[in-house]
Amino acid sequence: MKYKDAVKKSMEMLAEKENVVFIGYNVNFGSQGYGTLKDVPKEKKIETPVAENLMIGLATGMALEGYHPVVFFERHDFMLNALDGIVNHLSKIEQLSLGEFAPSVIIRAVIGSRNPLNPGIQHMQDFSRAFKDLVDFPVYTPKTAYEVEEAYNKAKESKRPVMIIEWRDLYDEE
What we know:
Elements: H1 3-15, E1 20-24, E2 45-47, H2 52-64, E3 68-73, H3 83-90, H4 93-96, E4 106-111, H5 128-134, E5 139-140, H6 145-157, E6 162-167
Parallel strand pairs: 1-2, 1-3, 3-4, 4-6, 5-6
């Protein structure tokens, strides 16, 4: 199975949960998550403007109301715009609320591809190590189709936030 097929299969598996919603730009339009969300029902997808801090804030709020949001960041680099929401809010709510709230949010971040057209360094940076140091929830970096499925299965069952970082260059790998 190709890496991308494992991602697509994982998105469809997540969509089977009643309370799962997919949030981001290009989830309903454009690439639909690089094609990985094309078979997810439209009513499960919330298209947003390119406003990363809004996306993570919306997901955090929805998680506090019982939803299990999957936030799609098309480019890992753009997550820097959402650092406040991820590091100071999503990652700290459980501690700040003395365990009363533990928002179950899946952050799906994609590191840009060099092919077929190199988009430049501002679209291909990898901040995986930094995020592992900045948040107190799991950050998975799957490199194979098997690891993709394993990470998303863990995320599906998690009662806390989870970040999964994908590499667009691996989408065609077996």
